[in-house]
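P.,

For your records, the input lines for the assembly:
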Amino acid sequence: MTPTRRTFLKIGAGGLVTSVLGFDLQPAYAQARELKISRTTETRSTCPYCAVSCGVIIHTLGDKAKNVTPQVVHVEGDPDHPINRGTLCPKGSSLLQDIVNPRRLMKPQVRRPGSDHWEDISWDAAIDEIGHLVKKTRDETFVTTDAQGRTVNRCEGIAWNGGCTDTNEFNYLVVKAMRSLGVCYLENQARV
Amino acid sequence: MIRSAWDRRIERAGELERSCPPAAQVMRFYGETARFQRQVAQGIGAAGRQVDEAFLLRYFPPLLELVRRAGTPPMAEAAALAAESPDSWDALLHSHNDPSDPGHAFFGRVLMQPYQECLARQSDIATGAVRPTCPYCGENPVVAVLRQEGDGGKRALVCSLCATEWEFRRLLCPSCGEEDRDKLPVYTAGDFAHIRVEACDTCRVYIKAVDLTINGLAVPVVDEIASVALDLWAHERGYSKLEPNLFGM
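Structure tokens returned:
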């Protein structure tokens, strides 16, 4: 296909702008000057929430300038995707909130046994505390052999529950870490 | 009474003439042209299947009269010239896809559009295959449409000649086939919330898309003409339009 590359403008005497057919484009030209144009990039992706793997299109606002951080502004179902043909479940429709969410936790919190509220905790304190509890629980519940005397080397006192928005890389580390501890109640929620 | 596609276009042109002052002149003239095209379409419908292109020649006198009365000075001049030489009408009719001469292509397009549209509506066209040109007449698309499909907008292209709508994938340049998302920017402006300029940085060609999921009252062919400010903007950024509309814009 050869696109039409000819111009549709005529600049007349006194800088008057008209179309090739003589329409006065001066008002439209003034309007074009005032337009606040945003550049959006559309990216095909897959909804991470469940095993259906619906196709989505993510709209990212940003003019590709080096000092501008692209911002996700909209997520829609991919109408060309053979699995969902544009449809999304209520959870998938809210996918934007997985990416941009003012209520996201930015620091670790802890709820003590018997407590009714969450309290802030520093990263160092959180990691130390988790480390101590994991060590204590594992030492107390580690099973080296089963009732028939077979070697099993498993830790039955710890379970791991992942989240569907966890990344591949994160899940890889989770499986590595949990298997090395002997944890068998391991679910990383990797469905897609 | 069932409203025809022409009725909706005429009505929409009236709305946009009032609501979009920068496009008032072109919308007023488009309204007149579409009323004339509706007459042609009704004439073709009444004549049945025996119509051929020569049938259209009888509509030249009223068309030239319309352009002389309501058209811009250069168009009125061209119409006056054409009125003097009826022998040239056949050539004028067939210059509808001559991009080098938009002044003459206009006359041919005004008559060929309703004719081809009537023929296309009577044909069985496979509109599902992804192809860059019209599955009926092979012309380029003049505008894209996004229609609600599930929670997304399904893209279709609209033929510049017979107004056939056929499905086309999103994130795919209809001009060069580019699929790289970073090369396919979508530009939007607050003044035209439902119109997107879908550009391609590989071939520097753009097509406007009318997003019916944002404004379901829009009529793609008409809203495309009324948003000429976006064409001027794209033109200034070095993009060319895939296919100019009826008015060569």
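Two observations worth noting. Residues 1-36 of chain A form one domain. Chain A has a mean pLDDT of 90.

Regards
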